[in-house]
């Protein structure tokens, strides 16, 4: 089943996706540090057990899903029919084109 959203375009979806990606790049400076508690004077006591290092996370390329279907070679013409397709077709070299009845057309080409 397909749902058409006539009042929206692809550009609308692209803008919304870009805004989501941009929002992920902002840092919340007001939030409490992970695993830390505020102490008088603004110092922070950090519990080493609960701290995770966000800088070591892997921001590399996302893993791509590969298709499980096997690649099939095109069989427009079976191999034994290639001779009949190319036989009496276009000239293979210049002398054959000049000797052809359609010499003028081959010269223009």
UniProtKB/TrEMBL annotation:
Q: Spans of biased composition, class Basic and acidic residues?
A: 44-69
The segments labelled Disordered in the record are 32-78
On the tree of life, the source organism's domain of life is Eukaryota
- Stated name of the protein: Retrotransposon-like protein
Q: What is the lineage of its organism?
A: Eukaryota, Viridiplantae, Streptophyta, Embryophyta, Tracheophyta
